Amino acid sequence: MKRFFIDPDEVTKDSPVIDGADAHHISTVFRLTPGNHILLVDGSGMEYEAEIISLSKKRVNIAIIKKYFPATESPLRITIGQGYLKDKKMDMLIRHLTEIGITGWLPVISEFSVPKPDPKKIDSKLGRWELIAKEAVKQCRRTRVPEILAPMTFQEAVEASGHMDLKIIFYENETTSLAQTASTLHKKPFTIFVLLGPEGGFSNKEIELAISKGFIVASLGPRILRAETASISACTLIQHQFGDMC
Ligand code: SAH
Q: What does the DSSP assignment read for 63-87?
């Protein structure tokens, strides 16, 4: 069954309607017809099975048949604070990290970030990242779209993470592994904030600031990984250690 997005307000109506690009996909690209069943997600974590009642190129009228919580969402809430990278790398990371199960994406402008976001283009960038995340959600059968946050400076990001159960900064000069860190925790974390550096890495000052704000410094092993490899590895390890990848 094909999966599409629906506005969360729409699913509560007696006669829900799908419009926009998804209506075009349903009617013209996939050539679905009345009586066909589709799957719908509204971004809240719930999934719906629906029957197509009638359709045109721009509107699809449906009836909701079933609603349920599928088991594709991680039991964790992971927010990645990513040191700002070139556009293509940021796009790629959002796609892959959404598949791995993150729930938040925060671009971080740190001391050694070379590309800096152009304030005039940031709205269109946020829109683009949201689209990429939605596509990845559909593809990997998740139901919750990660929250895409506007860029912050390193200091703002560190301050904003205050309420999280566990805060980790990955640093190539550290030797303590995530497993060692995990063994010292009294309770399994639910909300996790993770800082990963740009190509130039973090400065000593940034590492010290993070430690002073309660961050744990962790290693990803003896090799220095490229920024995008490090982010994907870190998320996978976190899901393995505390979440649902084993
Ligand atoms: N410029 C640095 C490498 C930065 S790698 C150098 O060449 O020395 C980019 C980011 O990936 C780092 O800031 C860190 O967050 C993460 N990273 C890469 N390898 C790592 C490792 N072995 N352990 C922990 N973090 C690592």
A: EEEEEE--TTS-SSEEEEEEEP--H
